[in-house]
Design goal:
heterodimer, A: mainly alpha, 18 helices, 1% strand, globular, B: alpha+beta, 5-stranded mixed beta sheet, 4-stranded mixed beta sheet, 9 strands
Chain lengths: 627, 361
């Protein structure tokens, strides 16, 4: 009985394969329901956005570093955003700052990072043929695409895109008379973000369902790679926090459009007293940061997950403290929801709340510290192979430590009084969240490129790319702390009204030059990425000698990922350099019964469970019938 | 600056040369043997990358320490308020803790990267967990955090406590793109009410003249405050969010339309003393704006002078109330209070001046 069932499902699987060979171009590459294609779509969109986001930062860095410089040469691109005397318009400066933040946080590091690697790796690493719902997954990408188009279009609005900072605090963002960017540009921002939230939720639900329901036989939660744990927790964070942003901007939309007073009260602007009474501008900040803080971890956790996998693989060692890593990620995810108001110590919030949030904020440093120590211990007595992905992962740990440590200072509300909204904060979060997550993103691309495109990237270009980026990031953001300690506020077009502004003229020039070189060196990556897709060497099946399931698929996996049965999983993913084993890695699908020479005592007991795991095959195959 | 740019260029140059030299070798080795089936992720650059981390750490530390010491005079601006001295001390103590942690962890990270670089004759140590270690590095950071939290909480509570009764009350109002100030006047230390609907071109702070406390309120041409006497800032905004930021006083508090906020502090140096310390006769204390508020955000600042208490008293007594400057606003005072209000409006010894606004920008 069981045997026949297996057979039917097998033939069905083959039948499906044939169907997919007949897919047209549109279904295969555009409106694809294959998680691998969707991942690549996210990846390429994310990289394009990263270029725009980075270019914007170079523009405003030019203004900060070389305030006297003539920007006349940009007139063909920027048109009326260059004043008649060749300077950047002040309102366009703010627009650049705002769009840089929005694009980087949401489109590059949320959609680009999670979208790419959650989509690509969850089915491959848990052993599933695709996401729980390929259709919703496709919708998720296309909603993101629409959201991108709206945001991109807002750049060309005559009054400019949203310009009140990426946090778009009302009343500034609610009142078109307060600044030009709060007109049509702001409306488009709200629409774009609302659609983005829809996309993020559809993606997140899919990730969660897939991890819970579609794990292959034997893949218990305690055998999941840390990448999957990270993506899973990230999706949970997004699912719980993005709706709050949605409601926040919805109320803002009401205030802007229907004359409600959720955030507006007692405002006199443009020679006119507005009728709105009783709203609270602080309410918006609470709603925003209820997303905004988990968002930091939505951006960071996938990068840490990717890093865990890459560091273990390339140290040829098990990740140190697998369970501690999981618990610290769960701890971080939980605490992420109850620290949001540390962004609001000096907003006039009740000081008692400030004390509570300071306490909770500094607690979150403990699991973060544990993670860093565990990474370092994983390197200890390893046999480290410096692939470009490994370099970027070690770089990530370094940036995570450097940026995280200053968080201990900013999380202290008494110290935050002086440092809030200065360049100290800018330096802090660019290191710990921006650059660290970006490093995770790039590390992931280098590591899984062979699986994505079946080709190898050029490692040498990867090394140069890493060293230039790593040095560049530190040269940009390390000195920025000094400017912050001196009390220079952020989002300033020029520092002429600040005491001692001429003290840091040279420093600002230096930072701008370093930023320019860092940005330019990303061209190496772009070149390597594109040329390797077309001209790269064909990848071997398992180039990094890694244990996880994605390397058991063919070089270019078809829709469905594994041509025959999905492999079963018998062991955790970190059996590297196990004493007694002939190779320095034992993939997850190798049963303990096949490795008697390297089994630890308690693992011999696991052999008994293998029959049970194998017995699940028919049920697993059955579950794919009709998909 | 030139030195910095030079060093930067040099670092990149050395790095590029190192790696390009390596890549030449690599390209040769690649062209000789068709690596495909026997692919190895270990390249001939493995050692160079390992050394790179150590070099990076050493050069980074040297540059970091040098630039820190070099920027010290510009970075470290002396605090001029009582609580500011405390928070600055705490800042530098926390900074030392953090710097120690930075050197320890980053040092190990980069040292291990070099020390345990790939060697085909060696096998990595299978070392999946150690509960004692994990416990140590959970508990130790937790204790250090607890210490930081406790000291932070103590000083935060003190700073945010209720202002002393005798604190001089000053209202600071943010608007696009400048600050205005209002004082409670000679009779008592109480500001009159305001109502944003009463704002007009002259009464641009919306002083509510039906409240008798407002009769002696004055809006000076220049902001002054006394040294050594607690000052309570009552902060509000007319249009959008702003943030009162007095870098020298270590004061920052948002100005929120519809929700008054406050901050109290005690200045410890007069403007004259600060100028002497800075050896700069043009130095002035300033309020900047720290919350983005529109195109002119970066220009939004106001000078304030810190005087010796007796000078401040003298200055305070010389100021003319709003009603004195604009007697026509007597009409807005309710009938029954008008005689009382007239007391503040009548003694107009000098001619009525043009509307006085506190210099913005």
């Amino acid at each position: 009985m069981l045997a026949t069932e297996t057979q039917t499902s097998d033939t069905h699987a083959h039948h499906e394969e044939h169907e997919h060979h007949e897919l047209g171009f549109v279904q295969k590459y555009i409106f694809s329901e294959d998680h691998k294609t969707i991942a690549k779509q996210y990846l390429i969109s994310g990289l394009i956005w990263a270029f725009f986001g980075g270019a914007m930062s170079i523009l405003f860095r030019l203004q900060l570093g070389f305030p006297d410089m003539s920007m006349e040469f940009l007139r063909p691109v920027l048109g009326h955003w260059i004043t008649s005397d060749g300077k950047l318009e002040t309102e366009f400066y703010l627009a650049l700052v705002t769009m840089h933040g929005t694009v980087m946080v949401f489109f590059v590091l949320t959609a680009g990072l999670s979208g790419t690697f959650s989509n690509f790796l969850i089915p491959l690493q848990v052993g599933a043929r695709d996401m729980a719902s390929g259709f919703i997954n496709m919708l998720s990408y296309w909603f993101f695409f629409i959201s991108s188009c709206i945001m991109f279009a807002s750049l060309f609005v005559e009054t400019g895109p949203a310009s009140g900072g990426w946090v778009i605090y009302p009343p500034l963002s609610a009142l078109p008379q307060a600044m030009p960017g709060s007109g049509l540009g702001m409306t488009l921002w709200i629409f774009s973000m609302a659609i983005f939230v829809v996309s993020a939720l559809m993606g997140g639900i899919n990730y969660i369902c897939t991890v819970i329901n579609l794990r292959t036989r034997g893949m218990s939660f305690t055998k999941l790679p840390l990448t999957i744990w990270a993506f899973f927790l990230t999706a949970v964070l997004g699912l719980l926090s993005f709706p709050v942003l949605f409601s926040g901007v919805l109320l803002l939309f009401f205030d802007r459009t229907f004359g409600t007073s959720f955030y507006l009260s007692e405002i006199y602007i443009g020679g006119e007293a507005l009728p709105n009474i009783g709203g609270s501008a602080i309410l918006y900040q609470h709603l925003f940061w209820f997303l905004g803080h988990p968002e930091v971890y939505i951006v960071l956790l996938p990068a840490l997950g990717i890093t865990s996998e890459i560091i273990a693989t390339n140290s040829r060692k098990p990740i140190f403290g697998y369970r501690a890593m999981i618990f610290s990620m769960i701890g971080i995810s939980f605490l992420a929801f109850i620290v949001w108001a540390h962004h609001m110590f000096v907003t006039g919030m009740n000081p008692f709340l400030g004390s509570v949030f300071m306490f909770l904020t500094l607690i979150i440093a403990v699991p973060s510290a544990v993670k860093s120590f565990n990474y370092i211990t994983t390197l200890w007595k390893g046999n480290i192979v410096f692939t470009p992905a490994m370099l970027f992962s070690i770089g990530l740990v370094s940036l995570f430590i450097s940026g995280g440590l200053t968080g201990l200072i900013l999380g202290n509300s008494a110290l935050d009084i002086q440092l809030h909204d200065t360049y100290f904060v800018v330096a802090h979060f660019h290191l710990v969240m921006g650059a660290a997550s970006f490093f995770g993103f790039v590390a992931g691309v280098y590591h899984w490129f062979p699986k994505m495109f079946g080709k190898m990237m050029n490692p040498t270009l990867g090394y140069i790319h890493f060293w230039m980026t790593f040095a560049g990031i530190y040269l940009v953001f390390f000195p920025m702390h000094y400017i912050g300690i001196a009390g220079f506020p952020r989002r300033y077009y020029a520092f002429t009204s600040v005491n001692g502004f001429e003290d840091f003229t040279d420093m600002n020039k230096f930072i701008t030059i370093a930023a320019g070189i860092t940005f330019a060196s990303q061209a190496l990556f772009a070149y390597n990425f594109i040329s390797s897709i077309f001209k790269g060497k064909t990848a071997p099946l398992n180039p990094w000698k890694s244990n996880t399931l994605e390397w058991t698929t063919p070089i270019n996996p078809e829709h469905g990922n594994w041509p025959g049965n999905i492999p079963a999983v018998y062991r955790w993913p970190y059996d590297y350099s196990k004493p007694g084993a002939p190779d320095d890695f034992i993939p997850q699908n190798v049963p303990y019964s096949a490795t008697p020479e390297s089994n630890l005592p308690h693992e011999n007991d696991e052999i008994a469970k293998e029959k049970e795991i194998e017995g699940l095959l028919p049920y697993q195959n059955e579950s794919y019938i009709g998909r | 600056m030139n030195i910095l740019a030079g060093i930067l260029a040099l670092v990149f140059l050395v790095l590029s040369i190192l790696v390009i030299r390596r890549s030449g070798k690599l390209a040769k080795s690649l062209s000789v043997s068709e690596v495909e089936a026997d692919y190895s992720a270990v390249t001939s650059s493995n050692k160079a990358n390992a050394i790179g981390f150590v070099l990076f750490f050493v050069i980074g530390c040297v540059l970091g320490v040098w630039s820190f010491i070099n920027s010290m005079p510009q970075m470290f601006q002396k605090p001029n308020s009582i609580h500011g001295v405390g928070t600055d001390n705490m800042f530098w103590i926390s900074m030392s803790v953090v710097t120690f942690a930075f050197f320890a962890t980053t040092g190990f990270l980069f040292y291990f990267s070099w020390r345990y670089q790939y060697n085909k004759n060696r096998v990595a140590k299978f070392y999946p967990e150690n509960h004692t270690l994990e416990l140590i590095w959970t508990v130790v950071p937790a204790i250090i955090m607890a210490g930081l939290v406790f000291s932070g909480w103590k000083s935060w509570s003190a700073i945010m406590s209720e202002a002393p009764k005798d604190a001089i009350v000053i209202e600071v109002i943010g608007q696009q793109f400048g600050w205005k100030v209002r004082y409670a006047g000679v009779d008592n230390n109480v500001l009159g009410n305001y109502d944003y609907k009463k704002i007009d071109n002259t009464n641009d702070l919306g002083i509510d003249l039906s409240d008798e406390n407002s009769f002696d309120d004055f809006i000076p041409a220049e902001m002054h405050l006394p040294k050594g006497v607690p000052v309570l800032l009552k902060i509000r905004a007319k249009d959008v969010l702003h943030s009162v930021f007095m870098p020298d006083m270590r004061v920052k508090m948002d100005a929120v339309p519809g929700m008054p906020t406050k901050f109290w502090f005690t200045a410890t140096a007069t403007t004259e003393e600060k100028r002497a310390e800075k050896e700069n006769q043009d130095y002035n204390f300033k309020i900047n704006c720290a919350e983005v508020c529109g195109n002119g955000h970066y220009t939004m600042s106001i000078i304030f002078k810190v005087d010796e208490p007796e000078d401040f008293k003298k200055w305070y007594a010389e100021q003319k109330s709003f009603l004195t400057m604009f007697p026509e606003y007597l009409d807005k005072v309710p009938e029954k209070l008008r005689s009382k209000a007239a007391k503040y409006a009548s003694p107009a010894p000098t001619e009525v001046e043009t509307p006085v606004t506190v210099a913005s920008n």
